[in-house]
Amino acid sequence: MNNVTLYSTGCPKCKIAEKLLSEKDIFYSVITDKDKITEIADSNGFTAVPFAEINGEITDSAGLFKWINNQ
Fold this sequence. Notes:
Elements: E1 4-7, H1 12-23, E2 28-31, H2 34-44, E3 51-54, E4 57-59, H3 61-69
Parallel strand pairs: 1-2
Antiparallel strand pairs: 1-3, 3-4
């Protein structure tokens, strides 16, 4: 079973990620705390949401969507 945490501000791209995760029946949790999002984004060089932690690895939105499509 995958452990997925989605970092989301509720933007349109974030909503697409949530929709795709749900459609694939992938259980995930969502972090919406802007301070936490900024902290993780800054420490990983990300400039946009959504991004995710998947099975312990942080990935940007491109990696997230690629991972979802491969499930």
